[in-house]
Design the sequence.
C-alpha cells in the first residue's frame, strides 16, 4: 500500500530534516506551506512572518480551516499514483480530518516535538538554502514566538500533533534525532510490508 507520511510540529522542531531523509529514501516531497510561499513570490513581497501570516489566514478565510489540505489535494491524488509521499507541514485539525477521510490508512502522521527555546535558537541560526522556494528561512526569537502563538491559537495546530501515529522528541543531538528518524522510517516501511503480505 502506498503511503502519505504527513509531518507535523511547531516551527524549528525538525520537520525538514525528517522530510529530507524520507526524500532521500525515494519518497516524493510535498510541502503544505509552499502554497503560501508561492503566493509571496507571485505578489513580489518580502517573505516576512507578518506577510506570510496574512496570506495563510486569507487562504483559510476563503477555503476554511482545511485550506492547505484542500489546495494540495490535487497534488496528493496525482503523486500517490506514482509512489509514497512525504508531506511536510500538516497544520490544522481540519486538514488532518480532510486527508484522513480521503486517504484513510494510507495516511500516517509523524509529530516532532522540541522545546520552544531550542526551536527559537535553531530558527535564528538558519541559513537560506533554497532561495527560490524560501524553504529554510531564519526567524528572530520574537518572530518565531509570534508564529507559535498564531499557529496554536488560530489554526488548530495541536490536533494533528495529538493524533500522530509516531512522535519524536527532538531535544538531544542532531545525530540522535537522525537515529530516531531512521527507526520511525523502518517501522513505517515494515508495517507496509506486513499489510501487503
Sequence:
Amino acid at each position: 500500500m502506498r503511503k502519505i507520511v504527513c509531518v507535523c510540529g511547531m516551527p524549528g522542531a525538525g520537520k525538514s530534516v525528517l522530510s529530507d531523509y524520507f526524500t532521500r529514501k525515494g519518497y516524493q516531497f510535498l510541502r503544505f506551506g509552499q502554497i503560501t510561499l508561492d503566493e509571496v513570490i507571485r505578489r513580489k513581497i518580502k517573505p516576512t512572518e507578518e506577510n506570510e501570516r496574512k496570506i495563510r489566514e486569507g487562504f483559510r478565510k476563503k477555503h476554511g480551516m482545511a485550506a492547505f489540505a484542500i489546495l494540495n489535494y490535487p497534488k496528493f491524488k496525482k503523486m500517490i499514483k506514482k509512489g509514497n509521499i512525504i508531506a511536510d507541514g500538516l497544520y490544522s485539525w481540519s486538514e488532518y480530518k480532510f486527508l484522513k477521510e480521503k486517504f484513510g490508512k494510507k495516511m500516517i502522521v509523524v509529530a516532532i516535538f522540541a522545546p520552544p527555546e531550542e526551536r527559537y535558537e535553531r530558527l535564528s541560526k538558519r541559513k537560506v538554502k533554497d532561495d527560490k522556494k524560501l524553504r529554510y528561512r531564519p526567524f528572530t526569537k520574537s518572530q518565531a514566538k509570534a508564529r507559535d502563538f498564531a499557529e496554536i491559537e488560530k489554526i488548530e495546530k495541536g490536533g494533528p500533533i495529538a493524533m500522530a501515529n509516531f512522535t519524536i522528541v527532538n531535544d538531544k543531538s542532531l545525530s540522535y534525532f537522525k537515529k530516531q528518524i531512521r527507526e520511525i522510517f523502518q517501522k513505517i516501511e515494515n508495517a507496509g510490508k506486513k499489510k501487503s503480505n
Notes: Strands lie at 4-8, 28-31, 85-88, 107-113, 166-169. The domain at 4-191 is CATH 3.40.50.300 (Rossmann fold).
